[in-house]
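Re-run with default settings, no changes from the original entry. Doing this only to confirm the output is reproducible before filing.
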Amino acid sequence: MSDSVMNTYGRLTVAFERGEGAWLIDANGNRYLDALSGIGVVALGHAHPAVTETINEQGQRLLHTSNLYQIPAQIELADRLTALSGMDNAFFANSGAEANECAIKISRLYGRKKGIENPTIIVADGAFHGRTLATLTASGSRKVQAGFEPLVNGFQRAPFNDIDVIRSMTKNKNIVAVMVEPIQGEGGIYVPDDGYLQALRTICDEHDWLLFLDEIQSGNGRTGTYFNYQQSNILPDLVTTAKGLGNGIPIGVCLARGKAAEVFQPGNHGSTFGGNPFACAVGNTVVKHIVDEDLPKRAAVLGERMLDGFRNRLGSRNNVRDIRGRGLMIGIELDSPCSDLVKSALDKGLLINVTADSVIRLLPPLIISDSEADQIVDIVSSLIEAL
């Protein structure tokens, strides 16, 4: 590791030179099965031919103009995403954190326009929404907040998956929105009870709040539908996504519906790079392949295959607290911290991640084969059995 790079990550020593589908190859030719896909980013796998072709073609034509002008690829991508999501319009950014910042600003301005002087957003314990000052404040982790005080005002915290606590907060006249992940990612792959999102939708409707869903990690087909909320048969007022939308090219989007879609006017928000021709051309290619190849359905099938495999191998082990997930967003919670397993898996040619100290997080590309899925189950299970 060079001293010229800021020391913000506990990086592994391996460096990769190229990728092929679900595999990465290092400088020595060693192959690694990627069960993390760049933290849920490379949904179509590494060096996907259609993505590569789009990058080459668009790179020779036009990279950037700014949002002072019409951008046909941006309009096309907005049309695709609004049609898929049931939303009305889109604001493009460069990351999930920026997309969440946009939705936070919409929520606050929505409240201000209703005459609320101190608009407040309900957020969840264990959440992760980004590392800007507003999004780390909205996150439910003291680890990401520590040292960056004073934090941003305007957030009130509630336990994740606890509707009764949300109901108890309805007397607060400053509340303007509820902001949650449909499945908590960084917090440990927590899947809420059936009916949780529907109950949030009902409460928001009753009190004229916005329902704001962070699908940065769970969106783009990962959990079995294009967006996870579609499994609950509801529509949010705001939904954000990023990660898998660009297959490695930085892009994020905030989608809005109804009253939330009418809040911003020219001058309220902007981005120099957001939604530029290059990022949106790639985004269009990624979305097209996710939809045309029915990868959300494939993720659902593979996810059940992997969860069944883990439960068969590990379900009776005392050191395994829980095996959970949806689609190709899987967590295995152990009874003690297990970050050492990241290096152990690397030694066996597998890339994994540990989040919330004791949860093995698996976010493989949506294009993995049955045999690659089984290989992930076998290696991870063997590592846990050896503890």
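The chain has two domains: 16-48+294-385, 51-292. The chain has a mean pLDDT of 97.
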